[in-house]
Design goal:
2 copies of one chain form a homodimer.
Chain A: E1 12-13, H1 19-23, H2 29-39, E2 44-47, E3 55-57, H3 64-79, E4 83-86, E5 92-96, E6 106-110, H4 124-139, E7 142-143, E8 148-152, H5 166-171, H6 177-181, H7 193-199, E9 217-223, H8 228-231, E10 236-242, E11 244-253, E12 257-258, H9 270-288, E13 291-293, E14 297-300, E15 306-307, E16 310-319, H10 322-341, E17 359-368, E18 371-372, H11 375-389, H12 393-396, E19 397-402, H13 407-411, E20 417-422, H14 438-458
Parallel strand pairs in A: 1-7, 6-8, 6-9, 9-20, 10-19
Antiparallel strand pairs in A: 2-3, 4-5, 5-8, 10-18, 10-20, 11-16, 11-17, 12-15, 13-16, 14-16
The complex binds N-(aminocarbonyl)-beta-alanine (2 copies).
One N-(aminocarbonyl)-beta-alanine (URP) sits at the interface of chains B and A.
Pfam families (chains A, B): Peptidase_M20 (PF01546)
Organism (chains A, B): Massarina eburnea CBS 473.64
Family (chains A, B): Belongs to the peptidase M20A family.
């Protein structure tokens, strides 16, 4: 089956392979899917269908389930001949040697953590496609010019420790280690990110830094998490970049009072005011063709017959351009103050009893400016897509901008980067029903493999 | 100091006392306040002023702090010569014998539990005024015609176990014991009301029933919890009745989705929909000069970058008349369904992107129809108020309807009942800053004492 090359060794060298030889290296769809579902035994979520694999995932970062998935990743990549490094953020780098081991590896990477009610594909598919790449290279005795690696980034979701992509953020020197280590978990619990790392024994000694674990490039396969590919009947998204987003915390302070004895005009109802803000943020986003979303809301004291005195909620605002996100923030800052003061913003007060004024504070927790990926990586993904899709390729690919943030955003600050998207059913993600067809998973993994090999081959 | 009466014994008998002798029985303001603040060491809440007693209370029903306050109540009333009975709801009845001990006692009662961020007066004042009554009777060697009692009702607030006045509700056969015993606590925790009762050793063996612990009458001193007395410069509210209210749970079900990749029109955002409902409930209440309040709101899954798929919130609706509350419920049922379906109710959708339809379910958890107190008790309170206030009395009292529910609502179903209100600062209650002046506390206690004695004297 193997074709020996002109090389003096029995190994196949990427730089000596012709287009046909390269394209003939193929991922194994069955093995990829079996591996993926195997690791989904750790953190299995809500069932949505009858088949054994038709459940969601609930694998919060650094939870006991995440530890088991990590252990599998370390053991598997080591048994495939990789050297494994764990850094101070618990990022796991598995490196397969190349002909030249002085230069940094070309990476495939993503994350094994999920949302509390997430699916089996977001992040997980990208890591498994990386592992499948290692298996394809091994079984074909391929020796790359430079090392190739697979990286599992910690707490990409920001669902347990509320800063998404925090560990690639530290690696790229965009987020201070201290900020990351002292993050408090969101749900009832007392862990910080660093105590959680120690607790599961993944607080590595290697600095979390691109200078300690450098990368030649970072490629990430991911489900689109939106409906565009499916709607357009496309198979592969070639990702040019990622839209801008900010995460805000809004705190509204009014006054606790009795629901039965306090007339409406004597109230400073923090929840009623927060409701107006939420509705207004949606209008602000609509007007700009942008997004605004609240995923967390807490109130105090939390009793049926006490008007809440304090409400705190998250606000996630996104748009393709930085200036639109900045403009939304400006509008929100101005308008939320007016809403808290009791002014009628956009007719929200129609039919309402005027109440006492309240206070509002707005904190920016996270800022991810719009990202453009590297032309060389985008080109590698395009070539890989055409190689994988065959003659009909042109009709099956689509260039696009990612709506979600990914570790590739931070990776791209320190090395050439791009991403590969595959369609997911109805664009649903961050939901147990998230689903990507087996052949689409495999096609994405095939494009990832080919992208890494093509990038490796083109290196100086 | 004591005036011996025509009685053949050295004791003072209520039915033989003239108006002057009766009015000369006086509560001790200093002792009352010292006792009250003494028991506020158990469950002390947030500090709002510099004085040692300037803190709120946080004494959820059947908590360790509530147990200590209960223990104090049992020990104190027993040492004052009372017989103490604890029933299957943990209600504590302390009975001081009278000349005739066959007939049921005339009670003073209220509750020792508080809101999570409550004050030192709501409920607590009423129980302490009852204990002070016992002390006044003892130190003056007064023997009443029939027994008098003081009752501490369990979980009046409904703040830990979400059914207010639940234990007087069981006592009056308005709420089944099983419903009450199986109530789940609201905040993270796994107790039911009955396990919590056992845990602190207050699950009594006497049935919680008016047939086991009957009452001749129930008088309750309480802070007004609203601003009317203070605004009108009145000292005593003679309470004619209590407004109607219902507690509802609203559950909105949409779909979890990714905040970055799901465009606004492809969402079924349960929190945005709940915000519209909240705002609308406020408008519905405004239009009817009624009240609507949400004190609890929970959402799932609770992650910054996941649009919530499910939101559940409480809705407390109140008005003086039953038909207004029923009308509000009808409107809310109709309009919430429309809002969930995406219809524009009252212009709430102006400027919003239309989204996918959602589901809503509405559960009625609690219904307290409008209550009218008993003319004989209202008359006893009036006479007592004039006796306590002296010549200027007419200008200092006010007849009123209670905005809040009280155990007197359920007591009134089984025995003649009325209440006495005293002003509280700015009408603030269910808040740590809740405050009632010492002289107003004492005046209220004086009216309570006189009401009970006058009722006792008029009994056949
Ligand atoms: N892909 C993904 O869900 N990333 C989490 C960061 C974000 O919210 O965009
Ligand atoms: N008085 C008082 O706060 N009672 C609780 C029941 C209610 O919410 O009205």
């Amino acid at each position: 089956q193997r074709t020996f090359t002109s090389s003096s060794t029995w190994r196949l060298h990427t730089q000596e392979m012709n287009e046909e030889q390269l394209s003939s290296l193929k991922v194994n769809q069955k093995r990829l899917m079996e591996d993926l579902h195997h690791t989904c035994q750790w953190g299995t979520g809500e069932r949505w269908g009858d088949a054994p694999t038709e459940t969601g995932m609930s694998r919060l970062a650094l939870s006991p389930a995440d530890k088991l998935a990590r252990d599998w990743f370390v053991q598997t990549t080591e048994s495939l001949g990789c050297k494994v490094t764990i850094d101070a953020m618990g990022n796991i780098f598995a490196i397969r040697p190349g002909l030249n081991n002085i230069e940094p590896p070309t990476y495939a990477g993503s994350h094994l953590d999920t949302q509390p009610t997430g699916g089996r594909y977001d992040g997980i598919l990208g890591v498994h496609a990386g592992v499948e790449m290692l298996k394809v290279l091994n079984e074909n005795w391929v020796e790359t010019q430079y090392p190739v690696g697979v990286v599992n980034w910690t707490n990409e979701e920001g669902a347990r420790f509320p800063l998404s992509m925090v560990s690639s953020g530290v690696w790229s020197h965009s987020i201070p280690l201290k900020t990351a280590h002292t993050l408090q978990e969101i749900h009832p619990g007392t862990s910080t990110l660093s105590t959680a790392l120690s607790h599961i024994n993944y607080l590595g000694t290697v600095p979390a830094s691109h200078t300690s674990t450098p990368m030649a490039a970072h490629f990430e396969l991911h489900i689109e998490q939106g409906p565009l590919l499916e709607m357009a009947n496309k198979k592969i998204g070639i990702v040019r970049g990622v839209q801008a987003y900010k995460w805000l915390t809004i705190k509204v302070t009014g006054r606790d009072s009795h629901t039965g004895t306090t007339d409406l005009k004597s109230r400073a109802d923090a929840l009623l005011t927060a409701s107006k803000m939420l509705l207004h943020s949606h209008k602000v986003a609509t007007a700009r063709n942008a997004l605004a979303s609240t995923g967390i809301l807490n109130l105090w004291p939390g009793s049926t017959n006490t008007v809440p005195g304090v409400v705190e909620f998250s606000l996630d605002i996104r748009a393709p351009h930085d200036d639109v996100v900045r403009g939304m923030l400006d509008t929100i800052e101005t308008d939320f103050r007016k809403i808290a003061a009791g002014e009628d913003v956009g007719g929200l007060n129609t039919g309402c009893t005027p109440s006492l004024p309240l206070d509002v504070s707005i904190t920016e927790d996270f800022d991810s400016p719009a990202t453009s990926f590297h032309p060389r990586c985008i080109a590698a993904v395009s070539e890989a897509a055409y190689s994988a899709l065959g003659p009909d390729g042109k009709n099956l690919v689509m260039e696009m901008t990612s709506g979600a943030g990914h570790d590739s955003v931070y990776a791209s600050k320190r090395c050439p980067t791009s991403m590969i998207f595959v369609p997911c059913r109805e664009g649903v993600s961050h939901n147990p029903r998230e689903f990507c067809k087996e052949e689409d998973c495999a096609l994405g993994a095939q494009v990832l493999l080919q992208s890494v090999l093509r990038f490796d081959r083109q290196r100086g």
